[in-house]
Design a protein that fits this description.
Chain lengths: 465, 465
């Protein structure tokens, strides 16, 4: 059992006073700023911290952690606030540690294809910085999240089918431990078998074991040639089977995204397109010009075998962008699909052989539950998102949505999948973590209790108690 | 501080008696068998267990662990005994848990490109089993190690440049925890952000946190076409620069191995070859026929730019084998290089930009220390092995070798690398783990103490105390 933080108002006030004395304006108790820092694009009620501290260095973070540890005050690490499972909520109050000012790109090692960044650097900022090198940091969860935050939720996104997730793209972390000690979890060596994999322990720990302040991340070459293909299928199963065949064939897919008929309809309306309202794959290929050409051709043959009804492809940048428009505009298209609604994102991930079943059952469930909920999938990984367009003030509807999400999580778990492919557990999926991993969660609790005995690091996340 | 196991002879004898009663011949105290189970191809003195238990199921492992836990008797998990850092030694006695009879391949999911195996399955056994599927388990550390053992040391080998290490190729583990509870660490989903990465925690833990009994591993397609190239360079730096350029260019190298002049000389003598005694790269390319052809051509151009002196390549299987002969015969060639000597393997891994420096300094050090010690490198990862051919009975020579290995470890660490790329810490590199990761090792100890408070799981490994 993890200790519930037993912070008194006096302790919190003492820490706030000390931080204000040492750091002046870097600490704020402004209500609007506090409220903003607990915002998240999820259906979870907002829980605001008592103060927000804007850190500018690892040393400052260590100082804040030590103070909070001494007074048992909760600390919530914050990057850009794009968490989808309320990872930045402050259910026990405390100090939100905003790392957005720690946005220095410290070194780029081109020959080693790695770089060292502070946790507040965002992925777009890094890629802009890398522009002249021919290298990229390809992990793309959609939002322009901070790299520290992406690590903390083990984020991935559209490019995971090719480049893996955050767990596959980090060589080492600098972490401020719950007692304020600064640790380095690894080196710049590409591989190591030196002891426990502390790097991976913090990736996905959602800030509950310490604060990531610096990251050594892998970079990848930008392929010399890129092509995209968009193809509509008669049903979800044939689209999924095309994905399975392409991966088994060994095609190096940069991205392979699925949109269901509802999502295509939404995109047609928003982006003024006339795509067939059918399950549609959006595929990106990368490599040499010759290799890309060959891959597109092979993919076309595979798609044809599975009854693909339309097939567009392009390699010039403008044409690629045009073909990819619908995928780009998903978020805005969803909002327009049901004016006044809010976008509640949830995701699951299943073995790819079960993906079609899971999608079809979910599709039926959405219809039966009378929800407006398009589906977009990173289908190369068996991962898909349901974007539930919700009138969040309507309690009856919210209860229906919650029941639907619960069924979705259980459906994925029953198929030997996971209740969260890339959004994390946060507050939203805690009970499903237990259903998914059973006794193993008890040992996660033991690790948490060993490293953070007073439960000051992002309490209330991942674990139900 | 980790508890030293405080096992009395009576406790060990009690466990042995109980196991014999329950399992009969599955337990043995035969001196030869005990001695064999503590063997390892390293310079570390053999430390034998009090008994060896041959497990046949996860339930049996759980039963044995519970008994050992109740009596505080050490347990040493054992796969095939190919550890290079004395991971199977029994410095505090106890029971060696031989998992080689747990060699069932439980399920192969072709569409998902994964399979579930018991821990005692060896990599060659699995690949033979997969022959008809077009799929492979590509991780290749050289020895025909058990997959459980490979996971426990975070093994990799020649193919890591393409497929990553064991950490990148496992979806889920079944683990018997130090209290005897059976845990599942993940699902068959390709990715997940559900809580702490318990799978990665056990990968590389060398059996100190629990016993891995089953693994869900990723499989990969066998490329339709394969080609190899062998090219000699005037010096180590030009070979390394060719590797860097090839990776930055985005060539999909299946393997890229370096042998130094000493190793080539040894192979020439052993395998009756007449290769130039120069630093030489052995490269494998895989993909479609067209893509492979293009890649070989690009690689040839890059190698030429860096002054490559000879370039042979082949794509027919027999020709490929012939070209690859020297790399295959490294072990035997080394033994013949110094008749009567034993093969002491050590490895380090550095950022690839530092590889040439590290190799050159090590080369000089070998000469100055008057050792016979060829070098073979998995250079795409910045990882290389020094095979020290040692007269292990000669105390003065062994002292020189030990000092050399210490310098090698420190050299790698000073270059922001690791003291062990793929062999693990075992008993051999414990003090260097501290030098490499400093305060972080203290938190590894906390995790160990939390999960295994009596330190019964493979005690004396990874940590100095």
């Amino acid at each position: 059992m993890i200790a519930r933080p037993s912070t008194s108002i006096e302790q919190t006030e003492a820490v706030i006073a000390l931080l204000r004395e040492r750091y002046g304006d870097q600490l704020t108790c402004n209500a609007t700023i506090r409220r903003q820092h607990a915002n998240s694009t999820s259906w979870h009620p907002v829980e605001t911290p008592d103060a927000v501290f804007f850190a500018t260095s690892t040393e400052e973070v260590a100082d804040v952690v030590k103070l909070c540890a001494a007074h048992a005050v909760p600390l919530i690490p914050y990057g850009t606030g794009t968490s989808l499972e309320a990872g930045v909520n402050a259910p026990f109050g405390g100090i939100t540690l905003d790392l957005s000012r720690m946005n220095a790109i410290l070194t780029v090692n081109e020959d080693d294809m790695d770089c060292v960044v502070q946790a507040g650097v965002t992925r777009k900022q890094l890629n802009t910085h890398l522009r002249s090198t021919g290298l990229q940091f390809p992990i793309d969860p959609g939002a322009d999240a901070s790299i520290g935050g992406m690590a903390s939720t083990r984020a991935s996104g559209t490019s995971a089918v090719r480049y893996g997730t955050m767990k596959d793209n980090i060589l080492a972390l600098t972490v401020v431990m719950p007692d304020g000690t600064v640790c380095k979890t690894g080196t710049r060596a590409r591989k190591s078998s030196a002891g426990y994999d502390m790097t991976r322990l913090f990736i996905g720990a959602e800030g509950t074991l310490g604060v990531i302040t610096e990251l050594t991340v892998k970079l990848h070459g930008i392929p010399p040639a890129i092509a995209v293909a968009v193809c509509a299928f008669p049903d979800l199963a044939s689209a999924c089977n095309t994905v399975i065949a392409s991966i088994r064939y060994g095609l190096t897919l940069g991205r392979i995204e699925l949109m269901d008929d509802v999502q295509i309809r939404a995109c047609n309306a928003y982006s003024k397109l006339d795509m067939q309202e059918k399950p549609t794959l959006f595929v990106e290929f990368g490599g040499t010009e010759l290799a890309v050409k060959e891959q597109v051709e092979t993919f076309r043959q595979l798609a044809d075998e599975f009854g693909c009804e339309t097939f567009d492809n392009a390699s010039a940048p403008d044409d690629r962008s045009r073909l990819w428009t619908a995928r780009h505009d998903v978020y805005w298209a969803c909002l327009q699909l049901r004016p006044g609604s809010k976008f509640l994102a949830t995701d699951v991930c299943v073995p790819i052989s079960r993906l079609a079943d899971c999608l079809v059952e979910t599709h039926t469930d959405i219809a039966e539950t009378k929800l407006v909920a398009p589906i977009v999938g990173h289908v190369g990984d068996g991962n898909f998102h349901v974007s539930v367009m919700a009138m969040t003030e309507d309690a009856e509807e919210m209860a229906r949505i919650k029941a639907f999400i619960n069924r979705l999580n259980r459906r994925a778990i029953a198929m030997d999948g996971t209740c969260t492919g890339e959004h994390g557990i946060g507050e939203g999926k805690r009970e499903f973590l237990e259903e998914e991993l059973g006794a193993t969660v008890g040992y996660m609790r033991q690790l948490k209790a060993a490293l953070d005995p007073n439960n000051i690091m992002n309490p209330g996340k991942i674990f139900t108690h």
